[in-house]
Amino acid sequence: MKKSEKGKFQLYYIVKPSDTLWGISKKFGVSIRQLKKLNNLSSDQIFVDQVLKIQEISEEKQNLNETFNEMKPDQISGGTQAKKFQMYIVNPSDTLWGISKKFGVNIRQLIKLNNLSSDQIFVDQVLKIQEISEDEPFLSETFSELIPDQILGGPQAKRWAKNIIEAAQKYEVPSKILYSIMVVESRGNPNLVSADGGIGLMQFQIETANFLGVNPCIPEESLDGAARYLKALFSEFNDWTLAIASYNAGPDKIKKYNGVPPLEVTQNYVNNVISYCKALNWPDIR
Fold first, then answer.
1. Rounded CA separation 4/204 (Å)
2. For residues 22 and 28, is the Cβ–Cβ distance under 8 A?
3. Which residue ranges does the record assign to the LysM domain (predicted)?
């Protein structure tokens, strides 16, 4: 969590279509004059998706540090696999025939290796291409030699790999999970603002970002907050699958259904993140 001077944190808000400066001032209990001064506004005019500073929050009001300091180190579940495979994420223009030609394998082999019932594939599907030996890793665990079109999310996502590793090490969470969530959420686009209010690399809702004390528009803060949040979710549920589901649906829904909610969007989200983790063929770095 990045701190401002004097041990204070900034509270941010993303302007919605129906917002006015007066309405925002009432919502957060601050004066219009304070908002204008804090955001260097020359008038009351604001625009949709504008990021406004609301107020500074004293460090004493934050209870996150104590919570996170008590979390115990953990290990990702699941045993090691005897075999390792070259993996590929299906792009919109891909066909199984085209993929077979690209990697020099036959369609029958791809169908058998991936338990496909036909040659139909879909965007973002994770395909096994061929088995690889331990001394010829498909992806370098150091990220330094990764080929852009082979790593999940492409070069736009790859650029945040170093920050993700650092955040994962800092909060002792699996870097492959954090990276996969980032790919599913934004594909590495730090400027993404989704229709449901998700902001930045990790698509934080403004309420969650404020709770974590991070500015979701700043990539490094977004990744740091996501790693910390992921650690908190794992600490609560002691299960990485539930932590991933909770990142998408919120912890209340996990408790309500006592597991992954029967919601198609959340189930697809979990499946995608787990598939991406398997496709990231490197030992986890912590």
1. 20
2. no
3. 11-54, 86-129
Domains of the chain: 1-59 (3.10.350.10), 82-138 (3.10.350.10), 143-286 (1.10.530.10)
First to last CA, the chain: 18
Query: Of 70-74, 94-98, 225-229, which has the strongest mean pLDDT?
Result: 225-229
Whether residue 121 has pLDDT greater than 90? no
In angstroms, the CA 280 to CA 275 distance is 9
Beta bridge partners of 126: 89
∠ CA 273-234-245 to the nearest 5 degrees? 40
| Residue 239 confidence (pLDDT) above 90 | yes
Query: What per-residue string of b and e applies to 154-171 under the rule 16 or more CB within 10 Å gives b?
Result: beebbebbebbbbbbeeb
Most confident of 125-134, 155-164, 228-237: 228-237
C-alpha radius of gyration, the chain, whole number: 21
Q: Are 230 and 208 in contact (CB under 8 A)?
A: no
Residue 147 to residue 128: CA distance in whole angstroms: 17
Is 199 in a helix, a strand, or coil?
strand
d(CA 49, CA 14): 5
Residue 286 pLDDT greater than 50, yes or no: no
- 149, 123 Cβ separation under 8 angstroms: no
β-bridge partners, 88? 127
| pLDDT of 66 higher than 70 | no
Rounded Cα gap, residues 110 and 120, in angstroms: 11
41 in Cβ contact with 32 (< 8 Å): no
Residue 78 confidence class, pLDDT cut points 50, 70, 90? very low
